[in-house]
Write a structure and sequence with these properties.
This protein is mainly β. It has one domain: Maltoporin, Chain A (Beta Barrel), CATH 2.40.170. Helix content is about 10%, strand content about 50%. It is built from nine helices and 37 strands. The strands form seven sheets. It has a 22-stranded antiparallel barrel, surrounded by four helices. Strand 13 and strand 14 form a beta hairpin.
Length: about 700
Amino acid sequence: MQGEFRALRGALRARAAAFALLGPAAALALGAAAVPVRASEDLFFSELPIVASISRLPQRQADAPSAVTVIDRVTIRASGARTLNDLFRLVPGFQTFAGSDAAARVTYHGVTDEDYSPRVQVLVDGRSLHSPLFQNGMNWSLVPVALEDIERIEVVRGSNTTSYGSNAFLGVINIITVDPELVRGVSVSANAGNQGVRDFALRTGRPLGERGSFRLTVQQNADDGLDERSSTLSDHDWRDRNRSRLLDLRVAWQSDVRDLLELHLGRVESRRLTGRLDEDTGRPRASDPLRDLDEASSWLQLRWLRTLSGTSDFSLRYTYSVDEADSGFVDPTRTAGFRSVDEAGDRGTRHEIEAVNTFLPFSRTRVVWGASWRSDALRSKTMLRDRGSVQRDVGRVFANGEWKPVEWFTANLGASHEYDSIVGAHFAPRASLAVHLNPENTVRLGAARAWRTAATLHYRANHLLSPTRAEWVGNPDLPAERLDSLELGYLGDWRDWRMSLELRVFDERLNDRMIARIRTGEQPAGLDNLPYTVQPVQDLRIRGHELHWKWQPFEGTRIALGHADTRIRSRNTRLGQRLADNPGSNFFTSQPRYVALAERSSPHRATSLMWRQRLPWGLELAVMHYRVGRMKWTRNTEVEAYRRTDLRIARPFAVASQRGELAYTVQSLEGRHAEQRMQRIVDRRHWVSLRLDF
């Protein structure tokens, strides 16, 4: 009897792990089999043959409706990355830069001008990290998960508004964390190196009776950022340092054979310098003094996962998050009563409820459908002066289906309808067909329409300098950006050669691209100046191809090559052309720079190469090399083409029951280059890491 109980408990935990790893849909794979499986680390350290982030159904990559890149925990550790954004250098078409006095960003296919990368959705265990405070985008200074706690990352390269809403405009980054069942004992790690690198992390996990377990992580990262002395003397008007702290708790409880309950809560805090110094005197500028920018994010997520049958399951998720920021100062040059300034602050909250049901209506058809509702509130004494707390509600329903009538053909069809209390309703369909020429070669054709709505601030802003002068005003008539995309894909999986190749050719048309800091030349009623607004002024056409090639020529050797070739062309919308013909608009005076911002927001060519090699004496070597063409992150900045090489060498060890690892990592091995703007020089950074597992 005791053996049967252990087998049943193992089956429950294996199913629970599938829920946690790939969402409720993945449990169908285990549920249909109905075979008890003993929980073991080997199951989770092996590479899974399915992905679930595209259609929210567990699918082979060959059956999925779009391209996806999987970054597993072995790759994460080998990369030597200290920050999450660094990992996406390995993904074709993605770009990022080292953080400095500006927080890092992550972009896909360009369109880089907004601070918080709002066109790529970022999820951690189903929770969106996009915030009303951060312009409906992701703040990469507030990453709410330690890299050691990530099981895998599925990066969807292509529009996915159908599955995840308007922020999944160009793609999705879905982060799945390690199941608490796999974390036992205590792990302590630390980094120490030049440029002020001082990191510390502690992780522990324990069982909670016979049916539950928890994982707790505490982490602190710090560095001195980039060195302003590396830039020219006239550009020494900035300073840099970064600090962050994280507390992350995840609890899983298997209440019975059908039900799994999860609790996930935590808080992350960040402090970095912002502001400018006067170039002549070296003293803080009155209108933008050097000061701390304090940011924080707290969250609570509850999830109930229920197995309805061997071919159907249901999940219900509730999330509450609070984001806060403070960089306030007093500007003596402003009118009395308007001198207190905090453009970054101050508070955004979000409540979200989502229900998802997955089932198999027929033997060769699978369907997932669901509905969600979220309520956002944004408050800012500076940017939303006299408006109090601005409320925004968004409701959506979605469905995705997979039909596989024969082994050589797979069809995917999906659609979503989203209603926004500020913007209105939008319908987003997607369809794809995959032909499996044989078990090793697949060709895919797909089409999708997506929408992206602007941040609450862009509709409601009211940033006043005096009773009759404004710095920013909202544009209540902003239309949503629309993306129509076509893609042709090929997937080769040659297991006898230990080799795979994924190729994606894309053609994307982005209409009504919004740009901030536009003066229309038309003075709003009640004001005696021309404030900044957000306007839909450009249409873009983005074309190119991407490839991701992997090869394991020998047992201890792994090579991965990523490459993207991207071309962007822009033209003005009707409104954009009207502003371009109006001498009172700054869109008229800076036309060449706006065109360059659009067409060079993605490098024409970018390549990444990762080589992992097992060496004698238990050593593990990883070399990452990146080549990135010239591009623009903002209208007034440039970054020339650069090369970067990172290296990590590690030695795992074991003494009795204690395990650990000693590693040395160097980034920018080839030395100085710029990644975000020519005034921010990235120089060689290296550190030693030690991890002990008790």
